[in-house]
Amino acid sequence: MKPKSLHAQMIAMIAATIALCWVGALALLFAYLAHNKTSTWDDKLKTIAIRLLTTIPADADLTVTGPALRLRNPALERSEKLAFQVWINRRQLAVPSPGAPATPLRPDFEDGPATTEIAGQRWRVYSVSDADGRVHVQVGNPHSVVDAEIRNDALTGLVRTSLVLLVVGALMWMVVHTSLKQVVALEAAMRGRRKFDLTPLSPDALPRELHPLVASFNHLLLQLAESIEGERRFIGDAAHELRTPLAALQAQAQIALRANTVADKDLALTKLLRVAQSSSRLSEQLLDLARLNAGANAPQHTPEDLGDLVLHVARDFDTHALQHERSLLLEIGRCTIRCNVDEIGILLRNLIDNALRYTSKGGRVRVGCGYQPDAEPGQAPKAYLDVADDGPGVPPPERQAIFERFHRAAGTSARGSGIGLSLVAGIAQSHHATIETGSGLDGRGFAVRIVFPAAAAGADVQNP
Length: 464
Fold this sequence. Notes:
Structural class: alpha+beta
Largest sheet: 5 strands, antiparallel
Transmembrane segments: 12-34, 163-186
Distance between the termini: 59 Å
Domain HAMP: 177-229
Low-confidence stretches: 456-464
Number of helices: 9
Protein name: histidine kinase
Order of helices and strands: HHEEEEEHHHEHHEEHEEHEE
Radius of gyration: 51 Å
Strand order of the largest sheet: 2-1-5-4-3
Pfam families: HATPase_c, HisKA
Subcellular location: Membrane
Mean pLDDT: 78
């Protein structure tokens, strides 16, 4: 469905408003004119009737009638529809006007205005009588004349009102068109930008009502700029990190090809396998980091038993620990967290792998989880995940820096990619968890504790 134009919507609303105003003005005009014209005609008829009655002499002999005078211009008579009658004692029509009906304009001879019907024609009549009630003067006008005058006045008023509303509509259209020019200019400026030009928009030339919208656009542009810059840094860092293992792979392959003995060839192939394993691990971490940064894994958090997750991931490292003469200890307590299972698996693998690689032969790595016992009364306890070793450890000044991408602690013999702990930090942040660091087993080594938010109400709380 094609989206509606804001310009078209505003014009349509203005047109609808003007149309409603036009209809309302027309109705009010007809109602006003109908009432006002009737009142005006009643006043005219009343004035004529009173003047006629008071003009008749009190001793006039109205019983004598004769032919009426003729006008010099007979055409004037045809243009006037007004009629009047002078009745004596309600029975004798003494003075009728030309064209007046032979019957009383108002048969009940009551004083005041009234609407009557004579020979199928409606009349508006005003009747007045003398003090003795002997003489009655009735003045009337056909209702068609009153209606025609009302229609003419209404048509004139309607034309004038329509012209005024058309002028108002044109002015409002010009105002809307002029006001939206700034928005159209902003759209044209955005389309004219070069690729990846994420400079914030300037709201100075726009109305204040659009400033919040521009501010939201600028916030989005800033996020895009930061995201693109982060991706650029990631690509550059990843290319730099992959250059070394790829060069080592090539070198070891050349050594294996030039080896003269089987022993030399096996030694070169063994080193080649180690480099390949390291490159594979680096590639996996880079892919995990890219997916995490791009939001490929939607934050579908569900309640999961952290102990089961720890046990499942730790089993994958049993053989690796035995081959490298390390001990992997588990201290698992049942606890529930809301999490993304895949991301927590990545976090666990990186913490355990990092601890095993930086622990010397015969060393120990302990992985534990459970609920922290220091919960305040009335509050749900927080779950934790703890990975500690008895290796060389990390100096306190560097314990926060090691969670930054491609940072490596100084003075360590093992070579890492510098990505694993940055993945841990990113996943912990997406789960609203905090990271605590400290000394490892028996006061030696290094320990990382991930503290998750308080468990949902009703969780099974069992401390290890």
